Predict the 3D structure of the following.
Amino acid sequence: MNKLLITSFLLVTALPIHVAFAQVETEQRAAPNVNVLDAATWKQVDTSVQRGLAWLISQQKADGSFETIEFGQPGVTAFCLMAFLAQGESPVDGQYQQQLSKAIDYIAAQQQPNGLIATSAPHGVPIPRQLNRHLMGQTAVYNHAISALALTEAYGQCDPNQAKKLMPVIEKAIATTLEMQRWGGKRKHDVGGWRYLDVRHVGEDSDLSLTGWQLMFLRSARNAGFDPPEESIIAAVSYVENCFFNQQNRRVHGYLVNRPTACTRAMAGAGVLALAHAGKHDSKEALSSGDWILKHDFSDYNNDTPPYGCKWLRDRYHYGAVLCTQAMFQLGGKYWDQFFPTLVDELLAHQNADGSWPPERRENNYGNCYSTSLSILSLSVPNQMLPIFQR
């Protein structure tokens, strides 16, 4: 992180989004346009985000977790934590410091003996004490990657005692992530990626969705001073590149390597982000996925039926929004200018009176904390307060 970004990270916490954005923008080459929204709309965004944070904090439980189903923990709590961090809130000062410190402790306490950070596995399958690729479950692996990412993003902001407790948790989480990446028996095109596997799901050995979060975690860990091997990150990026479809009407990143119809906005965004983490911001694949996102914008609030030819995947609006917003900020230029105002209009128009956003239509069982935290993360992108998403 350069000097100006560090200064912004430490000092801009009380400033509105557009002011923080302007300070960071001066240090970036061809940074996204600060005037993408007018002053009145920026003010609306600031007000909306603060209402969302106030609602979220009202949903926190005594143990530090945020309301959701058991299978969503601690991933949903991790998204909520990052929503506050993305607004410059801190576990060591500010109005929410005690609540955020408790959320961090809760996430860390969910680590299992095998290193996986997950509260439970779905379908009645207990999380095994030793890693077993066929008993991991879908949500357990997502919870691990997203929760580990939140801990590494918070690590540098914790007080020394809390940071000391987090260090072995993060180190064990890294080892677990690497073990899952290296499981043998993968087909050549799946090497380097990650996949949830349980007794019901067999076949493909990697997917872009889970690989994107695990890659973000490893990159974030390196940013925080840990030392995951560079070859693991390179292998993950190589897998992401294999997920790009180069067909006449579909030049975009997809969910699986051999499924050209398996494309969603979330996967296009995940592909762009992964390439950005590898320093390939302006690659033809990243730009092509960015063009595809522009053609399939977010003007269809909370619609889970993709209009772009996907035969079996369903879209996840808020989940896709947070990935695509980060991706389009990385691309900048026309991608940011054309994308962000449309999303802002939709999110502002559909925020509930209490400050929350409606549950994800596809995954409504995860509740409003899930959709609200993702909406806040999307609106907070210009702050550039989370190191993993900085341009």
In short: The CA atoms of residues 18 and 42 lie 6 Å apart. The beta strands are 244-247, 250-253. DSSP finds 14 helices and two strands in the chain. Residues 68-225 form one domain.
